[in-house]
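Work Package 3 (structural annotation) set out to generate three-dimensional models for the target panel prioritized at the project kickoff. During this period the team completed the workflow that converts sequence records into discrete structure tokens, so that structures can be stored uniformly alongside our sequence database. As a representative example, we reproduce one entry of 573 residues exactly as it appears in the project archive.
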Amino acid sequence: MTKRIFLSCIVLSLIIPVCAFAAGTSDTTTEAAAVDEAKTPRYGGTFTYYGFNNNDPPSAAISDGQYFATRWIAPIAEKILVGGVETYGPMGNDEYGFRAVSYIPDKYLEGKLIESWEITPDKVYWHVRPGIHWAADNVDFMDNREMTGEDVALDLISFWKSAWGGRFDGMIADVRTEGKYTVVIEFETYSHNFMYFAGYEDRAYVTPPEVLENNPEKWENQVGTGAWMFEEWVVGSHMSYVKNPNYWDSTTIDGVEYKMPFIDRVMLPIIPDTSTQIAALRTGKLDMHHGVPVAQQASLERTTPNLLSAFVTSGVTQINLKCDVPPFDNVDVRRAMMVGTDIEAFKRLAQMEDQPTHAYPANPYDPSIYTPLAELPEEARMLYDYDPEKAMKMLADAGYPDGLEIEFWANPTPANQDFASLVKDVWAKIGVEVEIKTVDEVTLHQYRTTGTYNDTISNGMPISNPLPIVTAFAKTGGTWNYGQYSNARVDELADQIGIELDVEKKNSMYREAFLIILNEVASVPTSLGMGKFYWWPWLRNYSGEYALDDDSGFFAVLPYIWIDQDLKAEMGF
């Protein structure tokens, strides 16, 4: 079959250890047996979750381009690629925590609906995993038939024709199948973004063609290959899912293989009110809450100390310096500004004291590309040694013995104004007088993207995916290059990274580019932005993994988790 496409683009966390619960007995043999019994996976139970479900779901049809629909489809459907949690996560060698937003480093990706793939500059081969069946018990327009390469190809074609298809402009030339299980995607122009967009990004869930032909906007018509199937949607109340009895995947725990999933039912209650969400978590009505607001965290931890928690990395807050005009076109001035920035004070302001000080340009929780602070060359390491007197001397040596008078642009939110006030206070200590300029966020963003601001501007930068850090933030003319930074070697590395197929070579290029960006202080990074989520300890075989694919990727973790009903009862729930 050939289909021609007509184209129109957290965390090593503060996790509280799970307590050991054993039967009360003085017999050590009995105690050991009880502990072993407690660790044995059990099937059954309902998992109740809050993470995004504060409103009813939108249309499920891909053609309608509703982003939040992808989160509700997550228990039902699966993607081409997934994070290899059993190999690299806490279940395996614990090299990577899978606690980052929207991105899985290439090194830690594995096939999900495909068993292998090959990439060349001209095309990609996807080898679809045989023996996976659609779970269609909830509909009458198809059977529980095997998924084929043609299904995957047709789904990708529908992706192109949808409201999201523009991301493939100039990238894909053709998609076709070879035999029953191989999909071939030919490139117009190769891009590393292809395997992200088509492999594990939000919209990359694979849907059978029968759904696309039968009122795909209806949730009761959704069919996937996932661990659960649609059960019901009660408007304003909840959406629920029931176990797929023929789910294809399994896991190995303590040398024993188990069919997944362990949990019988998934419940997503619709809870718009934050206080109601927190009350539901406190009382055990929720098993997990992803994204408890900072304002609620201290009270929650004080009143409900048995909850476990973890951080998830999202981005870093930074001060962009206008690098193309004086005074910040001088790299020595920019380096002086970073030495004169009390990063620890900014971490305290953000309540991120326990997070790494060196957190940019590379995500500190991605060991494939991150160089720890202690291992940086002295030229880079000294930038983190806050020293106002040294910073003033560096400014004087760079031609500014009387200091600087500059503007700092921020939006009017209290958090942003607190940040701006700290900027003004910290830099006053090195002879830099800051005038805070306040505009609404829309105008502020316009100033960033057009470069029509003076001196410095506040900004948040996602750091999970290293590719846009090099190609969009640091490359000359890049989309996110709000400081107009430019370096010929970084530009060269950005171009090479864009076409390099060898993961280790590409990671080496990232490390080189990141060191240049840091040394030249393309911006002053101040603190990580982290989300915090909570769960009850009766969720077993779980260590705080946040996502195995893009934003909705927690549901790829969920099939591995089992509910310890005995522990739940012992805790009074």
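The domain at 314-529 is CATH 3.10.105.10 (Dipeptide-binding Protein; domain 3).
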